[in-house]
């Protein structure tokens, strides 16, 4: 099947492949810049930008970690990542992923608009007030992540009534994605919640609101999967984990080694301070969390609102900001390594260009 370009707002994505936003430091300037350069849509993660370039943009550190949300979500760090990504991709469309659950959400969205990102993607909650923070930037395309037609209906109805606008596209994420899920543990296993069974009803709901593009995500791995999603009515796909297997991915080489060594049974759902189950690789940290013998939980960075300043972190047994940043820095002992269900299928590192060719032309 030949792919048509993906149009999101005023932006045309030549190859309808969105690279998923992955923090801390998995999709920053090099990965996102190269995906956009090769005709896809590169997505910078806003999570942990205070760690960029050895924490050069974090104005205050405690125990070598960015203090509070203002430093963890560093505006200067995000700007530097954007500038360096632009050196790679030029004026091609470039996006940013900003989780709704973060502290300082509105401020970070405003930062992204002012810095110059073309497209903002938001998941981890229903971003019913997202347009409020983009006022004055009509060209910035807004793309919420949903897990059901009901979620899309709630967002579209609220945006239209309050802000007289609709999403420029919507990402539909099924329960096989890496990181945080939009489902409970039990819902992740239910047949009706599998991506292939959600695409058609969400496309039908989108049609009621003018037919914004639906981008399918979660478990998409190769051209056959992309063809299937398009056949079901999706206009594009989002893929995260497979891009970790590229030379340009900003992840530490140890992070890539963890995924390359992972077996299918190693990739599991786990509890998270964000309040949603998350999927990652079972590592040394997992055993420490289960026995409550992991690193101290201090809540230095105050990263997500649902954690309630470390209360939920103590409940589940780890600080997500600290453990994701440990993974970014290559710490295999204490790092948290997110992966989609197909992460075990990574068996080599290739270039972004090679990967985009495989995804559009077949293996």
Explain this structure to me?
This protein is an alpha/beta fold. It has a domain at 6-251: Aldolase class I (TIM Barrel, Alpha-Beta Barrel), CATH 3.20.20. The chain is 36% helix and 15% strand. The chain contains 15 helices and 15 strands. It has helices at residues 29-37, 52-55, 68-72, 75-89, 105-115, 149-163, 185-189, 195-207, 223-232, 241-244, 253-261, 284-290, 311-316, 320-328, 352-361, and strands at residues 6-8, 11-13, 17-19, 42-45, 61-62, 65-66, 94-97, 119-122, 141-146, 170-173, 179-180, 214-217, 236-239, 267-270, 278-281. An eight-stranded parallel beta sheet has the order 3-13-12-10-9-8-7-4. It has a three-stranded antiparallel beta sheet with strand order 11-15-14, with no helix packed on it. A hairpin with a 7-residue loop joins strand 14 (267-270) and strand 15. Helix 1 (29-37) packs parallel to helix 4 and helix 4 (75-89) packs parallel to helix 5 (105-115). The longest helix has 15 residues, at 75-89. The two termini are 14 Å apart. The model has no long low-confidence stretch (mean pLDDT 94).
SSE topology string: EEEHEHEEHHEHEEHEEHHEHEHHEEHHHH
Strand-pairing-aware structural class? alpha/beta
The largest sheet, given as strand count, sense and whether it forms a barrel, is: 8 strands, parallel
Radius of gyration: 19 Å
Q: The CATH topology of the domain at 6-251 is what?
A: TIM Barrel
Question: Percent range for helical residues?
Answer: 25-40%
Q: How big a fraction of the residues is strand?
A: 5-15%
Count, helices:
15
The first-to-last residue Cα distance is: 14 Å
Which quaternary structure do these chains form? Answer: single chain
What best-fitting shape do the alpha-carbon axes yield? globular
CATH top-level class of the domain at 6-251? Alpha Beta
Based on the structure given, which CATH architecture of the domain at 6-251 is correct? Alpha-Beta Barrel
The CATH superfamily title of the domain at 6-251: Aldolase class I
Mean pLDDT reading: 94
Compute the number of strand runs.
15
Poorly predicted ranges: none
Give the strand order of the largest sheet, numbering strands 1, 2, ... along the chain.
Answer: 3-13-12-10-9-8-7-4
